[in-house]
Amino acid sequence: MANAFDPNTLASLPASEQALIRRRQQALGQAYRLFYQQPLHLLRGEGVWLYDAAGQPYLDVYNNVASVGHSHPQVVAAIARQAATLNTHTRYLDEGIVDYAERLLATLAMPGHQAMFTCTGSEANDLALLLASNFSGGQGVIVTAHAYHGVTSSVAACSPAFGEGVALGPNVRTVAPPDGYRANPEDVADRFTRAVQAAIADLQRHGLRPAALLVDTLFTSDGVFADPPGFLAGAVDAIHAAGGLFIADEVQAGFARSGSHFWGFQRHGVLPDIVTMGKPMGNGHPLAGLAARADIIDAFGSRVRYFNTFGGNPVSCAAGMAVLEVIEQEGLQHNAHVTGAYLKAGLEALAGKHELIGDVRGAGFFLGVELVNDRQGKQPATAAASRVVNALRERRILLSATGPAGNILKLRPQLPFAREHADLLLDALDAVLASV
Q: Which of 370, 383, 378, 388 lies closest to 425 in space, CA to CA?
């Protein structure tokens, strides 16, 4: 895992942190991971800032879950108000879930889609695969080569990012991500389309009917690939021609993050059969779900009566509604577009100064900065990326790394992130790159 704490260095930490980490290891076991060489002990968050146990502020350029800002008062008030009134499941009539579903579906601009709610993005993707298999009669799933789609058994088997520790399903085929840095950027669309067509043919050759093409629309775990707009269209046509569905995983890319559009798929002018969503949906409250064509949901509902105890409960829907209201009222999509472009331009300027930066890419407030040991060979600078991430942490700026080699700085700040915050990041990154 990129940017993970090494338990073998525990003795180098202050005594109080050692004690808390030992308690954590004893209570939570070996599967959990901590960020940074020196883990952070955080006590509170406000806006784009996080505060540690000593009251020191950290500029958060990583946690896209609290998308409209940590502890946003409007979201907190909505949760508290509803929790003090009523919280139960979806088998009773309640206006809140209907109001929220209608407003959420309106952002998709796809008439005829309906909503289903879960608690996590993993659940949403799991449910999407059930819907796709039921509707198409197929089993085959196509994903990108380092994709991450969740932790349930079915989606973990479609998540190559887990590595060798989690086997891919025999019904899963992987395709190379739409990388315009290591290959000709003008060929991204054709290359990706041909890869999906080859994966479909391989599934069929093994007697597997394709059920779905499942992609994170900003390809965030593969290394952040947003351009050129429209490159997904041919691959979507290919899966439809084979009788499968296109599932747009918007768990990380959605809710105005790309700036130019509310949803990542909208950058490509395609209409997903199913859209999955999560993470920023409740600004930290566990809320997720999907939107699918009505005929897909009808086909599923004729065989299965869907129920999720906590998915779509009144408190969750109040949180989700507040998030949509804040994004609109505070102009946060526009801010992601404008300030994201400012930040990207600043990163490109740093690339002109520092040979370590091979590429700057992404859209809005989801940017990737690929670090390479040499620009000609484009060899991943994995160790340098780790040093940069931890050096920025020492300067109280938080981000992480992604991609198969862990050499791509992953920037995904909260939507209220302003120019002044971008300047703080750029100045710190400039100094760190000079030292590395």
A: 388
pLDDT at position 56 over 70: yes
pTM score: 0.95
Reported as a single tens digit per residue, the pLDDT across 252-269 is 999 999 999 999 999 999
Model confidence over 362-396: pLDDT tens digits? Answer: 999 999 999 999 999 999 999 999 999 999 999 99
Distance between CA 376 and CA 368 in Å, rounded? Answer: 19
CA 46 to chain CA mean position, Å: 21
Cβ-based neighbours of 191, under 8 Å, separated by 6 or more: 176, 178, 183
- Outline where 206-232 has alpha helix (H): none
Task: Name the residue with tokens 């196509």.
Answer: 142
Residue 421 near residue 396, CB atoms below 8 Å: no
Neighbour tally for 294: CB within 10 Å: 12
Which residues make Cβ contacts (< 8 Å) with residue 399, sequence separation at least 6?
61, 62, 389, 392, 409, 410, 411
Q: Which residues of 7-31 are buried (b: 16+ CB within 10 A; e: fewer)?
A: eeeeeebeeebeeebeeeeeeeeee
Distance CA 115, CA 104 (A): 8
Distance of CA 79 to the CA centre of its chain: 23
Could you give the residue ranges of the DSSP H alpha helices within 137-187? 153-156
Mean confidence (pLDDT) of the chain? 96
Query: Is residue 289 within 8 Å of residue 124, measured between CB atoms?
Result: yes
**Tell me, what DSSP letter sits at residue 364?**
T
Sheet holding 366-371, edge to edge: 357-363, 366-371, 408-411, 400-402
Which domains are seen in the chain, by residue range? 73-329 (3.40.640.10), 331-436 (3.90.1150.10)
Q: What is the largest CA-CA distance in the chain?
A: 62
pLDDT at 224 over 80: yes
